[in-house]
Amino acid sequence: MSLSPILLVARRDYFAYVGAWGFWLSLLTAPVILAVLIFAPVMLARAEPPRVLTIVAERAEDGAQVAAAFDDLSLRSARAEIFAYLAATAPALTEPALAAFDAAPDRTAGIAAARSVVAERAPRALAAFPQPSPRYVIAPAPAQGIDVLRPYLDGTRTLPDGRQLFGALNIRREAGAPVIEYWSVNLSHEEPSNIAHRAMRLAMQREALAGQGLDPGEADRLNGFDPRIVQFDPRPGAGDGEVTARQRAPAFAALALAFILWSVVFSVANMLLSGVIEEKSNKILDTILTSVTPLEMLIGKLLGVAAVSATLFLFWGALGGVLLSTAATQLGDSIFGQVAAAFLEPRLLAAFAVGFIAGYLMYGAIFLALGSLCESIQEAQTLLGPVALVLAIPMMLVMPALDNPNAPIIQAASWFPLFTPFLLLMRAPAGLAWIEIAGMGAVMLVSVIVILMLAARVFKAGVVDQVSMSSWFGRKAKG
Amino acid sequence: MNAALEAEGLVKRYGARTAVRDLSFSVPQGAIYGVLGPNGAGKSTTLRMLVGVLRPTEGRICVLGGPVTRDALKRVGYLPEERGLYRSMSARAAIAYLARLKGTPAGKAFKRADQLLADHGLDKVRRKKIKTLSKGMAQKVQVLAAIAHEPDLIIFDEPFSGLDPVNQRVLEDTIRAQAAAGRTILFSTHVMEHAERLCDRILLIAHGSAAFEGTVPQALALAPSVAMLETDGAFDLAAALAPRGFNISFDGEEHGNKRWRAKLENGHDSRQLLQACVEAGAPLSLFEPARASLHEAFVALVGDKAMPGPVE
Fold first, then answer.
1. In chain A, is it the N or the C terminus that has fewer CB atoms within a 10 Å radius of its CB?
2. Is there a single domain that holds both residue B118 and residue B257?
């Protein structure tokens, strides 16, 4: 094996990819797309107008109980939104602003009071101060009786003010016990019925207490019991052991990095796949193979696309590093600041780097070998269908790994070399023994070597002997 | 003369199928050597073994005095039958890239690419991407890429296929120029005329085996000469000359004249044929002796079924 032809192949592939406009499009748009993916759901949720519900009740007091529950939800969500904003932007103002909110008579006044505290003490933080919009509003029923309401619910008719009715709650009584009917065309959305359910349960508790000759308000007091939960980490070196958002943040950062790793590994592996198919269809391989062995060509192609990935990571890493460092410094103890700092933890970055190198080499070699067996992108796609299903397994395991990184199935799966890069990353925040890290590293190294050797054989069969998927059971040879 | 290339007992099997069987030949240094045979005869498989792309199942290959190694192959230029270039590369970059893979330093590779493109009338397209070139131009660039590193041995697999007659002639000139510069050229073709015009020696392959190896005149000598004749009226020339030992077949009728084709076998030549016609009183309106072609030589050697298709 010689270095010079490997580097020439790598260099050619690198400049071929970097010279394509699609590369620059990916380089520049990926951060924007990522930002959109992160913030779009929040912005969409904020942009959505309140959902209009109406309540029909046999007893007026039942309807009032449920309406009050929706008002309470709206109040609490506004308070939570202000808290989240101030925790991220001006943590010092969180307490006084929320005190002002709590002291106000209603939701609208509470928002205004919190806003005035911020305006007074940190006017710069007002720029993006939330304008909380209630998730639900209760509208008077346009007609009595659920049958009459049906045209409003299925979209045939609108309310007198032109709004569309999202759902209706029909609270009736059967043998004195309340029954909640929720009517809506949005079949998978159950939140309104759950809110009504909690409200009516409280009402039933009050009725029961009153029936026993006790103060009905006692039900509210009992319902308000809220024991404080404190979580501890027993491991040595965990400080006083109390687990805060700072300790949890690395697990969420690992989850995000695992998704990024998976996306990047398969994106670049696909580049290799389509690259080798293009070379086969361009019929360039026979010319090159008089100068380069199949193994050298495989390694050269892997290096070329690795260099493309390195370029992407340098750009994105520098951009992300600056943004995350700034966030970690500026947002300090806030949740965002702590998550930003978690992304920059050396053990996570090291696990990401090792996972990328090993994952890229393994999956890249496999995809190259598969590509060498295909005559067209269409043929590759049919082949990749079942392969992609297998490769989705590590992504199915990351959520259970977030819940319990030391679960037996996660521990066992993390030793399977094709899953190791992703699960090593997920298990890193929980603290891995050095022996495990070394063991997994050795397994990945051996796997990389074995996969490269096997892939080179398949690659050779594909590009030299012209074995293809369509001729798998009968090698064809040219005359 | 030393051999630039020697093959001895070459065999290539794919499972139960044998693509090349017991093939031996030797290409003298400085020669233009043709490997001829119909499609599927085993030409490409043989050439791919010569340049190390395929490993022979059995047999020995000696390239430029040694085994088929990386260093030996740096002195070999190869144009495969299944050919192409990176479509997004410029013509000069494609030529220079393949020269660099053969060990030519970068600066020299680009200079050589520019020179070759200029010499072959492609100066204006040297910075154009391969995908923008016509098929003929792209094929010329591929030929230049095969010789850009100034190899001692050049192996072209079906170099004329896909070229129009003008560019076929240009390629013939290129091959002659390379030979004049002292290089050895081996090319495969199923078009006999190219081999007949260019080759010093030829190898005929049929069904994976060598049917003939030698010079073009030696091959032609194996084919019987023919003569085309025309007679007026109803005269039956075949019947008239059969008693004299001539093999004559009716070849059709034109403007009331009968056309005949005579095979000159059994030691007969065209002069004896003419004399026999005169003696038989044949009313000849045309007598046209013809030299045997390679095509006919190969029919004589391997029969009609193994012969190449129509001339391109």
1. N
2. no
